[in-house]
Design goal:
- The protein has 251 residues and is α/β, with parallel strands linked by helices.
- The protein has a single domain, classed as Rossmann fold, CATH 3.40.50.
- It contains seven helices and ten strands.
- An eight-stranded mixed β-sheet has the order 5-4-3-6-7-10-8-9. Strands 1-2 form a two-stranded antiparallel sheet.
- The protein is globular and about 45 Å long.
- The chain starts with a strand and ends with a strand.
């Protein structure tokens, strides 16, 4: 595919950004860091996915699980970063973090929040399909279900992954349970902003594995994110609601 250079290390190529999706998330920028605001569900979800990322990092690079900075000396890219809920912990774990989101409103909030916390994160407004460079760790949480072309999007992630790198993604499963919990109930009662999800764009784990394989990556782990009244959101063998998937370059 033909590409031309742009500023800030970006290149031009076909984008998977859906403008309506970007506008939806841009509206949430102002209270993104409010744990009781419109992004409250992301605040509840973030510790669960961060635990999974840490577990996969420790396993992939054989890190000491007690090491407070296991990503020191490594580069990380957080795709669809929002205002930095995951990018900031990755920086605290020692990574040199680049974070990209299609909504400039949330990038502005992210930059301000990181600066206030003394964190150096390279935030960019744009599309991963227009990004240069390769990264040891790529995270992409709750993003693929919002893009126009999932296959092209996964291929773009794979292109940015360094040799021996690690990709971690999360997304809702394409099940009736996920539709009930995330759209009918959560969006219905306002726990998630109405219109956030389109069930037709949900991706099952088997299909995700095929997308990864087509992009030259091998799935190395899948774990569910489940919900219960007693535990709330938690890692689980139950993948019906939502799941995390880790992948690496195929050998």
């Amino acid at each position: 595919m033909a590409q031309t250079s742009t500023s800030e290390g970006l290149t031009r190529e076909t984008s998977s950004i859906v403008p309506e999706e970007v506008a939806q998330f841009g509206k949430l920028a102002a209270d993104w860091w409010d744990p009781d605001g419109a992004s409250a569900m992301l605040h509840k979800l973030n510790p669960v996915r961060l635990k999974y990322v840490r577990d996969q990092v420790d396993r992939h690079w054989q890190c000491d699980e007690c090491d407070r900075r296991p990503l020191a000396g490594k580069t990380a890219l957080d795709v669809g970063c929002g205002a930095g809920l995951l990018a900031e912990p990755l920086a605290r774990l020692g990574a040199k973090v680049t974070a990209i989101d299609a909504a400039p409103e949330v990038i502005a909030v992210a930059r301000n929040h990181a600066a206030a916390g003394g964190l150096q994160i390279d935030y960019r407004a744009g599309d991963v399909q227009q990004l240069d460079g390769r990264f040891d760790l790529i995270t992409c949480m709750e993003v693929i279900e919002h893009v126009a072309d999932p296959a092209a999007f996964v291929a773009a992630l794979a292109k940015r992954l360094a040799p021996a790198g690690l990709l971690v993604m999360s997304t809702p499963n394409a099940t009736g349970w996920s539709k009930l919990m995330m759209i009918t109930i959560a969006e219905g009662i306002g726990r998630i902003p109405r219109g956030t999800h389109d069930f037709e764009k949900f991706i099952a784990p088997d299909r995700m594995k095929l997308l990864l394989a087509d992009a030259g990556l091998t799935c190395i782990d899948v774990e569910g994110i489940a919900w219960s009244p007693s535990r709330g959101l938690h890692l689980s063998d139950d993948v019906r609601l939502n799941y995390l998937i880790a992948a690496a370059t195929a050998s």
